[in-house]
Design goal:
heterodimer; A: 68 residues; mainly alpha; 6 helices; B: 146 residues; 88% helix
Chain lengths: 68, 146
C-alpha cells in the first residue's frame, strides 16, 4: 500500500526512529510501511495519521484496495 | 508501563530460577556421572555446550531486563520491541509455516526410516503425531478465541 509517511516525515523533519518511538513500533516497521512491503494495522494507521494531524485516508492510499 | 515493568520483573525472576536450576542439575549430573551409564565423549561435549549456551543467553537476557527496568526509555524500547505488530506478524507466520514444514518432513522421514529400522520409524511417527496434535489443538483453541 502506498503512503505519504516518508513525505510527511521529511516535511516535519522527523527521522524514522522518532516517528517509530512516537507511535510505538520499531524503525523497521516504519521502513516497511514506507516501502509498501507491510500494511499497517488499523490502530497503527490511526496513530500515524493522528500524529501528523491528518485522517487515515490523507496518509494512506486506498486506491489499490478500492480496485479489488 | 508499570504493568509491563511487573511482567519483566516476573520474567526476570523466572529466568534466574531456570538458570539456577539448570546449573544445579548440570553440576549434580556432572559430579555423579560415574554412577550413570557411560556415554560417548561427543555427547558430553554437546551437553556442556548446550548448558553453557542456554545459561549465557539467560544471563544476557536477565542483565538486559534489569537495565531496562532501571531506565524508562530502555523500558519503552523493550516494550516496543516486544509488541511491534510487524514482528508479531513475522513470528506468527514463521510459527505456522515452520510447523507445517516440520510435520511434512517428519512424516516423510518416518516413511523412509520404516525401510531401515522399526524403532526409528515409530519414533518419527510419534513425533509426527505429537506435532500434528499440538498444531490441531492450537488451531481449535484460536478458532474459539477469535
Amino acid at each position: 500500500m502506498k503512503t505519504r509517511i516518508a513525505e510527511l516525515r521529511k516535511h516535519h523533519k522527523l527521522s524514522q526512529e522518532e516517528l517509530a518511538l512516537a507511535v510505538g513500533v520499531t524503525r523497521q516497521t516504519i521502513t516497511s510501511i514506507e516501502c509498501g512491503k507491510y500494511t499497517a494495522s488499523l490502530v497503527l494507521a490511526y496513530k500515524i495519521a493522528k500524529y501528523f494531524g491528518l485522517t487515515i485516508e490523507e496518509v494512506f492510499d486506498f486506491s489499490e484496495v478500492e480496485e479489488m | 508501563m508499570e504493568k509491563f515493568k511487573e511482567k519483566i520483573l516476573k520474567r526476570t525472576i523466572l529466568m534466574a530460577l531456570i538458570a539456577t536450576l539448570l546449573t544445579i542439575s548440570y553440576l549434580v549430573l556432572f559430579y555423579k556421572q560415574n554412577a550413570l551409564p557411560q556415554i560417548p565423549d561427543f555427547i558430553k561435549g554437546f551437553q556442556t555446550g548446550a548448558f553453557i549456551g542456554v545459561d549465557v543467553i539467560l544471563i544476557r537476557l536477565i542483565i538486559k531486563n534489569i537495565r531496562s527496568m532501571k531506565n524508562e526509555n530502555s523500558l519503552k524500547k523493550l516494550y516496543i520491541e516486544e509488541n511491534d505488530e510487524r514482528k508479531l506478524m513475522i513470528m506468527q507466520k514463521t510459527g505456522a509455516i515452520g510447523m507445517d514444514i516440520c510435520i511434512v518432513a517428519l512424516a516423510f522421514t518416518s516413511v523412509i526410516a520404516g525401510f531401515f529400522n522399526e524403532y526409528i520409524f515409530f519414533s518419527f511417527m510419534a513425533a509426527t503425531i505429537l506435532t500434528t496434535f499440538v498444531k490441531g489443538f492450537f488451531k481449535i483453541y484460536y478458532r474459539f478465541k477469535f
